[in-house]
Specification:
The chain is an alpha+beta fold and 463 residues long. The protein has 14 helices and 23 strands. The chain folds into 3 domains: 230 residues, Bira Bifunctional Protein, Domain 2 (BirA Bifunctional Protein, domain 2), CATH 3.30.930.10; 62 residues, Herpes Virus-1 (2-Layer Sandwich); 92 residues, Anticodon-binding domain (Rossmann fold). A hairpin with a 5-residue loop joins β22 and β23. The protein is globular. The structure holds adenosine-5'-triphosphate.
């Protein structure tokens, strides 16, 4: 019997479920592969990341504006972008156990060969030469390799579309390109400028997911940055620096981040240079973010198919041209997974017990402060509720009066709450409370009048 390898994400998946961060999708029907639901704390965490990203890349910059475009775009979009033709995975099925696999992943895993960009014939040959087996049942009885488009199709009631088919967008980028003209016509932007968007993208992925690493429905935070062609190198370099600043701001461990330059022959059809920022996930080093020089491929293609000029008219220098594009792209769900992996710790305590703690950076922690009466007695709970009311509109706060105080601290440690404030009998006498730090577990007494100041100092905006 082969020894089953323990999934390194198991403890993280467990704390996410136990503490209401992330639930498996459609669980009551036995689950639905590669889909998840963000629970009450997961959605707070996600919103904090989105808001910080928007503040850093849109609101605090003069050269970037935001949009929120549709998921369903005119089907011609995907003809122009090359997705109908080329957004494929090469798949095979095992004839014995009926499992389906991506050929490149099978070869990578079993023969340790990178086969990106090879044809179906070449892939099939390697499959035979290297004796690749079905990882589920070990048979070598595969169907012929075939291409499978990753876009989700959906049927529309509109009748002027070919077969009434439309697609859920597999990247948010194209809805930015479709709005580029509206933005230059309405926003008085000058080259260089960027359009940012946060939104859902859909890909019919078949590879098992590693929790929220590979989903069929996920969120991207993307910027298309429009430039003059001869400035692409300096813009590329400066975007790589800004992407690193972002990683630092949300508290990702810089030792786990690396740049991975794509080899020329493996670049996507639209890209002249791509650098991935990879992260050392517990299951291996994998792409977290990407930075691509997309040339003016997309806008030129849209101009060709739509017959609407996509030129930028520079009246000052008397020039007109189709801008080139640098694209920094950030997967939101992968950001959350990397942050969870960084933050998760099991710590031994002095009393011999252990605790699970999520050491999120303060600016992304879902709950900022928890308020506890030491005991569930009216003289303490009434005072605690007053303090909770004073805080709740300024910082995401939680009030908890149930159970032993130690267990309440442990629960907040697992949520990554940076501070816990406890109201005890001394509070009634001298109007002081204890404030406990999540990481050091030290408790200090501060006066009730000083609570808001203390929180303000510790949650100073970091932009
Ligand atoms: P991969 O090689 O892992 O399939 P990709 O190169 O196809 O990724 P891009 O097309 O560059 O990914 O997408 C931009 C970003 O969107 C990625 O860097 C990643 O963070 C995120 N992303 C892509 N596919 C998925 C997915 N299936 N689930 C979750 N996030 C994804």
């Amino acid at each position: 019997m082969k020894k089953k390898i323990e999934d390194p994400l198991k403890p993280i998946v467990a704390v996410c479920k136990r503490r209401g961060f992330i639930y498996p999708g459609s669980e009551i029907y036995g689950g639905f592969a590669n889909t998840y639901s963000y629970g009450p704390y997961g959605v707070e965490l996600k919103n904090n990341i989105k808001n910080l990203w928007w503040k850093f890349f849109v609101q605090s910059r003069k050269d970037i504006v935001g949009i929120d475009g549709p998921i369903l775009l005119h089907p011609k979009t995907w003809e122009a972008s090359g997705h109908i033709e080329g957004f494929n995975d090469a798949l095979i099925d095992c004839k014995e156990c009926k499992s389906r696999f991506r050929i490149d992943k099978l070869i990578e895993d079993q023969a340790n060969e990178d086969v990106e960009g090879l044809s179906l014939e070449e892939l099939t040959k390697i499959l035979d030469d290297k004796n690749i087996k079905c990882p589920k049942c070990e048979s070598k009885n595969f169907t012929k390799a075939r291409h499978f488009n990753l876009m989700f199709k959906t049927e529309m009631s509109k009748t002027d579309l070919e077969n009434n088919i439309s697609y859920l967008r597999p990247e948010t980028a194209q809805s930015i390109f479709l709005d580029y003209k509206n933005v230059i016509d309405t926003m008085r932007v000058k080259i260089p400028f960027g359009i940012a968007q946060i939104g859902k993208a859909f890909r019919n992925e078949i590879t098992p997911g590693n929790f929220i690493f590979r989903l069929i429905e996920f969120e991207q935070m993307e910027i298309e940055y429009f430039i003059e062609q001869n400035t692409w190198q300096e813009n590329f370099d400066s975007w790589l620096i800004d992407m690193k600043k972002w990683c630092e701001m949300i508290g990702l461990d810089s030792k786990k981040l690396k740049d991975a330059e794509h080899a020329k022959e493996k670049l996507s059809h639209y890209s002249k240079r791509t650098v991935d920022i990879t992260y050392d996930f517990p299951f291996g080093t994998n792409e977290l973010y990407g930075l691509a020089y997309r040339t003016n491929f997309d806008l030129s293609q849209h101009q060709k198919l739509s017959k609407v000029s996509q030129e930028f008219i520079d009246n000052v220098n008397n020039k007109r041209f189709i801008p080139h594009v640098i694209e920094p792209t950030f997967g939101l769900d992968r950001t959350i997974l990397a942050l969870l992996c960084d933050a998760y710790r099991v710590e031994e305590l002095k009393n011999g017990e252990s605790r699970v703690v999520l050491r999120f950076s303060k600016n992304i922690a879902p709950v900022k402060v928890a308020i506890f009466p030491l005991m569930k007695k009216p003289e303490l709970t009434n005072l605690s509720k007053k303090i909770f009311d004073m805080i709740k509109n300024l910082f995401v706060a939680e009030y908890d009066e149930t159970g032993a105080i130690g267990r309440r601290y442990r629960r907040q440690d697992e949520l990554g709450t940076p501070y816990c404030i406890t109201i005890d009998y001394q509070t009634i006498e001298d109007s002081t409370v204890t404030i406990r730090d999540r990481d050091s577990m030290e408790q200090k007494r501060i006066s009730v009048d000083n609570i808001l100041n203390t929180l303000n100092e510790n949650f100073r905006p970091e932009i």
